[in-house]
Write a sequence for this structure.
């Protein structure tokens, strides 16, 4: 019996340097893990746990020690039903900066080498954070909520993460269901528009990473069909980031194990790791997570599988 010759691995993610404000990250050969630092009282995941600057700084430094390649700092919740992105957001730019900047400055004082992303859609907050040393702007609206933000990112030559969001948070609970093909085309077209807006503003393509936006205007089961077909978004030519950690659709999938009720946030860690591995195997170069050490370990295994010969 003849033995089959080993096959070369099929690369399912984009290999590209990611140009940030003062440095670059080599995306593709291995997964980069982004740790989440929520400086909010009302985040669905850990609201209030790290609102005090000292607590947020300590948490951020711990995530770095656990292996986070970069951190994403957010000071406004975009949970379903919030006023984020609307004409009267719950958190003003002034309040957002008051929460955010002391934490950013404290992290960089302790770890000047830290790569910090700022989760904001507000141009004023982005500029203040970039001036204070942030490298990346992570806009959940994909440049659709604050039309001054693309110019700020172009002028500062920072890294950019553009997420797809379907509508605003107050609309998510009433949106119609989309089949798999329609959903994928909706996400693809939205990201393509965001990418065009960025390049027209003067942001180089090598500074841009795209995020399908799991949970952001997608109904529970839609997220699974999007994850299964995520690799098709690589046709847009940019690396992908996936943020699946502790999302509500994971809790709903676990409901049969919790007497028919969605699993609480504290019981979604294993499901988060399973979704993270699926995202890596379907093209994600970066994964965004609240629990860094297990994510780092899971990413190592997924990378080994991708690189197997």
């Amino acid at each position: 019996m003849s033995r089959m010759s080993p096959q070369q691995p099929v690369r399912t993610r984009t290999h590209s340097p990611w140009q940030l404000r003062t440095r670059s990250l080599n995306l593709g050969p291995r997964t980069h893990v982004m740790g989440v630092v929520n400086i909010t009282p009302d985040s669905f995941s850990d609201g209030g746990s790290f609102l005090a600057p000292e607590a947020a700084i300590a948490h951020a430094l711990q995530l770095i020690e656990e292996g986070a390649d970069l951190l994403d700092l957010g000071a406004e919740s975009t949970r379903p039903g919030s006023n984020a992105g609307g004409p009267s957001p719950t958190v003003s730019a002034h309040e957002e900066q008051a929460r955010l900047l002391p934490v950013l400055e404290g992290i960089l004082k302790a770890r000047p080498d830290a790569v910090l992303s700022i989760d904001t859609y507000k141009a004023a907050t982005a500029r203040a954070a970039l001036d204070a040393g942030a490298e990346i702007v992570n806009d959940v609206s994909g440049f659709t909520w604050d039309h001054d933000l693309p110019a700020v990112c172009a002028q500062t030559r920072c890294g950019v993460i553009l997420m797809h969001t379907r509508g605003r948070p107050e609309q998510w609970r009433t949106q119609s269901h989309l089949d798999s093909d329609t959903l994928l085309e909706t996400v693809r077209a939205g990201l393509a528009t965001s990418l065009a807006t960025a390049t027209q503003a003067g942001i180089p393509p090598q500074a841009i990473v795209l995020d399908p936006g799991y949970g952001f205007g997608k109904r529970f089961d839609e997220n699974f069909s999007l994850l299964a077909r995520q690799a098709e978004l690589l046709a847009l030519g940019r690396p992908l980031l996936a943020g699946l950690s502790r999302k509500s659709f994971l809790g709903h999938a676990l409901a049969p194990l919790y007497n028919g009720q969605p699993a609480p946030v504290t019981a979604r860690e294993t499901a988060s790791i399973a979704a993270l591995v699926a995202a890596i195997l379907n093209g994600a170069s970066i994964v965004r997570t609240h629990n860094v050490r297990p994510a780092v370990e899971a990413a190592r295994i997924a990378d080994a599988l991708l690189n197997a010969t």
